[in-house]
Amino acid sequence: MANVATTFFDSVKMIAAEKGINEEDVFAAVEEALAKAADKFFNAQDFYGNFQAQMDRETGEFHVYALKQVVAEVEEEDLEISLAEAQTLNPDAAEGDTLWLPQDTSQLGRIAAQAAKQVLVQKVREAERERIFTEFADRIGEVVVAEVKRFEKSAIILEIDRVEAMLRRSEALRGDRFDKGQRIKVVIVSVDRSAKDPQVQVSRTDPRLLIKLFENEVPEIHDGTVVIRNCVREAGDRAKVAVHSLDPDVDPVGACVGLKGSRVQAIIRELKNEKIDIVRFSDDAAQFIANALNPAKSIRVNLVDPEAHRVEVVVDDEQLSVAIGKRGQNVRLAAKLTGWNIDVRSEADKRREAEVAMGLALPEMGAEAAPAAEAAAPASTLLDEIQAEGLDAALADRLAAAGYSDAKSLYTVTAEQLMQVEGMDQDLAFRLIDAVQAYFGE
């Protein structure tokens, strides 16, 4: 076992140095490995006992011992030794002591070495996982520069400080195209001590990445003069950032934009041309909501139900599409940023509502006809307004029953919402949304 011990000793030294693991932890793992190998070997020879191994930290030599308890009368020979026999080995032995009896390890051979090696590898892996967890658990939310190492089907494997990290394809931006060896900015989002894959998970879609990029680019945010109150993203497409200045002489929006847009443009380039709306935060909910709908200019904001956080925003007719945004993105992000449910209406819609309320919408009907008109179910105009493959009368009726009776009602809807309607699949939902955009000239 001397050569084997020397080999193990050298391996322990090398692994501890390479992996940055406490050397004593690896020695303890090796001792446990050899003890298990000895137990397996001696048990096969009908010698059962409690075995322990020790490794000389100076020479690398291994010793295996059978542990036996000193008793007055032996009942289990494999685990006990009589007091008289124990005192022939150690005159100071007393009843209740545990004697460590050296064992012949010359026959353990390569089987024991291989078994010990397997346990050693496992222990080293566990120790390394614990080290990685300890090192990265306090770094969640930190933006780091990682190097692209290799590509897998559903993820990109990166390296951060000699540790592998996983960037799932779903956490990469739509325009991300990387080369091996390229260095990219990511945010650490989680670390798992039990994961079989790389423990460290990173992202380029997480809002914290955008916040950290602003902190790095804008000195006023870094020193605390300007504060980011909230940040929402539809990663790779558009984001909104609410900022507030603690110094009345500092314009928070101007500070983030920079001279000729230099600061925000640097961030936009890093995020593959993701559009970024910088919004001035306000304690006045109505003003904050109006700011959040930038670039649209709102006419007025009506807090419909403050407790339920429902609000109605009325804009000029020509501003309606700007306020809502493509596929409802602008109003959707504004709602997430402010925490309010926002219903955007045009001035023309409000006028029509007022006319209906005043009885002016039914000028050709007599008093007797009006109740019948009110009782009639609203007909769907979808088929008249938009054309989409797969949309038929039956489906249009089901959409109308769900509240989507015309093109306008679909303007801010998402594919997920449409898929709640019976007979709707994802492809058709996207075709309908595209048809609505075309109808409004986008």
Task: Give a summary of the structure in a few sentences.
The protein has helices at residues 2-19, 23-43, 83-89, 109-137, 207-217, 219-222, 252-257, 262-270, 285-292, 320-324, 329-338, 347-357, 369-375, 382-385, 393-401, 415-418, 426-439; strands spanning 50-55, 62-71, 80-82, 98-102, 143-151, 155-160, 163-168, 183-191, 200-203, 226-234, 238-245, 275-280, 298-305, 310-315, 341-346. With 442 residues, it is an alpha/beta fold.
Structural class: alpha/beta
Taking the sheet with the most strands, its summary is: 5 strands, mixed, barrel
- The percent of residues in helical segments reads 40-55%
* Unreliably modeled segments: 361-378
Radius of gyration: 36 Å
Strand content: 15-25%
- CATH superfamily caption of the largest domain: NusA, N-terminal domain
CATH topology of the largest domain: N Utilization Substance Protein A, Chain:P, domain 4
Proper CATH architecture of the largest domain: 2-Layer Sandwich
User: How many distinct helices?
Assistant: 17
Overall number of strands: 15
Instruction: Give the number of domains.
Output: 4
Mean pLDDT equals: 82
What is the global morphology?
Answer: elongated
What is the CATH class designation of the largest domain? Alpha Beta
Order of strands side by side in the largest beta sheet?
5-6-7-9-8
Report, as a whole number of angstroms, the end-to-end distance.
79 Å
